[in-house]
Amino acid sequence: MQEVIQVNVYNEKENPNKSFELESLINTAGAKSVAKISQVINKVNPSYYIGSGKVEEIEDIAKKLDVKTVVFDVELSASQLRNLEEKMKLHVVDWTTLILDIFAQRANTKESKLKIKLAQLKYQLPRINKWFSYLSRQSGGIGTRGPGETMLETDKRAIIRDIRSIEEKLKNLEKTKVVNRKSREDILNISLLGYTNAGKSTILNQMLKLYGKEKYVYSDDLLFATLDTSTRRLDFSNTKVTLTDTVGFIDNLSKELNDSFLTTLEEIKFADMLLVIIDSSYDIETQLKTIDKAIDDIDVGEKKILYVFNKLDIVDDKMNILINRAKAEKIYMSARDKNDIVRLKEKIVDLIKEEYIKVIMEISYKDGKILDYIMSNYDVDNKDYNNDGIVLKLNISKKDYNKYERYIKKN
Ligand SMILES: Nc1nc2c(ncn2[C@@H]2O[C@H](COP(=O)(O)OP(=O)(O)OP(=O)(O)O)[C@@H](O)[C@H]2O)c(=O)[nH]1
Ligand SMILES: [Mg+2]
C-alpha cells in the first residue's frame, strides 16, 4: 500500500474531525497515512501555502520514513504545487486532486466517468509541470490515476480537444435525462442531499424495502459511495413520490470542482421537496455549513426542506443535536430502525399534504381515467353521484390543481 504524509491546514484552531476526514479520504483512495502534520495559519504563504519552516519539517519526516507523497487538505495553486514539489522533491497531492482521484476510481457509469475525466483534465491542465509528470510516472498511486500519466506526451491542444469532445458527449447524455424527467413530471419528486456518508443511500434503500419495488442503490461505509444520481418510485399508499439519491458533499471544494459537482446535482432543481440528511454522530456544524452553501449555489432555498438527523443510534450526546435548526422541519432517527423509516414516511406525507388545496371536483362518468387517477392518488372525503358525473370533496396537490382545473368547481 502506498504510504503518504498528510497535512492539515487550519485557519483558526485544530479540528480533529478534519484530520480524520483527510485520513479517511486517503484510505478510500487506497493509500495509508503514516504521519500527520498540521499547521494553524492566519495568512496563506503565496509560495508554499504553509510556512517554509513547515515545508522543511515535512521534507525531514519524509526522508526518515522514506515516503514519496504528501497529501494536503487544501487546494494549491499551480505555482504552490510546483514550488512544493521542487523544494521537497516529493509528489504533492492537493485536496481537489485527491477527491477527483477517488471519483475517477469509483465512477462506474458512462456519465460519471466522463464528468470526472472532464474535471480532471480541466484541473490538471494549468498544473502540469515536469516534476509532476516525472514523479507520477515513477511512483503511480494517488493523484496519478486518470489522465495524469499521459499529460506530458499530450500536447495541450489535444487536451483542449478532449475537453471539447467530452463536453459534447455530455450534452447528448443530458438530452436523454430531459426525457426521463418529463416522464416524472406528474409525480411529486423528493431529493436526498447531504454530506458524504450521512446515510442517504441507506435511507433510500430502507424506503424501497417498505414502499418500493425497484432495485436498491449502492451504499457502503465509504466516502463518496454514490457518484451518480438515481431515482426510485415509492408508493406511500395514496401518495406516490419519487426519491432521488445524489452524490454527497464535502467541505472545502474548490470553485471549479464545486461547479462540476453542482452539475451532477442538477436533478435537485426539479425536486418538489428536499430531504437534507445529516450524520448526527459527526461534525454537524461543518455538514450544515457545507449543505447551506450548496443549497444556495444550486439556488433551491425556496423549496420545502426536511432536515433528517440520522444515525441517532450511535450518538452519545443527544442534547447537542437538538440545538440545530430550531425553526426548521426536522426529524431525529436512525436508518437502521424500521419504525423510524415509517415515521419518516409519515412526516413526508404530512408535509406534502400541508400544501394541498381543498377542492370540490366534478368528473364526468366518461372520464374514467381521470377518475381512476384521482381515486388512487388521494383520500377522498366525500363522493356524490349525480346525472353527469361524480362530485368529489378532497384535498389535492398544486400540480394536480393546475392540471385538472377544468374539473374543479369554483364558487
Ligand atoms: N449506525 C448507523 N449507521 C448508518 C445509519 N445510516 C447509514 N449508516 C451507515 O453509514 C454508512 C454510509 O451510508 P450511505 O447510505 O452509503 O451514505 P451516503 O449518504 O449515501 O454516502 P455517499 O454516497 O458517500 O454520499 C453505511 O455504512 C451505512 O450502513 C444509521 O442510522 N445508523
Ligand atoms: Mg450514497
TrEMBL record:
CDD domains: HflX (cd01878)
One matching Pfam family: MMR_HSR1
Keywords: Cytoplasm, GTP-binding, Magnesium, Metal-binding, Nucleotide-binding
Source domain of life: Bacteria
UniProt-annotated binding residues for GTP: 194-201, 224-228, 245-248, 310-313, 334-336
Main location (coarse class): cytoplasm
InterPro entries on file: G_HFLX_dom, GTP-bd, GTP-bd_M, GTPase_HflX, GTPase_HflX_N, GTPase_HflX_N_sf, P-loop_NTPase
Record domain Hflx-type G: where: 188-356
Requisite cofactors: Mg(2+)
Classification via Gene3D superfamilies: 6.10.250.2860, GTPase HflX, N-terminal domain, P-loop containing nucleotide triphosphate hydrolases
Locations listed in the record: Cytoplasm
GO MF annotations in UniProt: GTP binding; GTPase activity; metal ion binding; ribosome binding
A GO term from the CC aspect: cytoplasm
Binding site for Mg(2+): 201, 226
Family that this chain belongs to: Belongs to the TRAFAC class OBG-HflX-like GTPase superfamily. HflX GTPase family.
Function: GTPase that associates with the 50S ribosomal subunit and may have a role during protein synthesis or ribosome biogenesis.
Binding partners and assembly: Monomer. Associates with the 50S ribosomal subunit.
UniProt xrefs under NCBIfam families: GTP_HflX
Protein name: GTPase HflX
Species in which this protein is naturally found: Anaerococcus porci
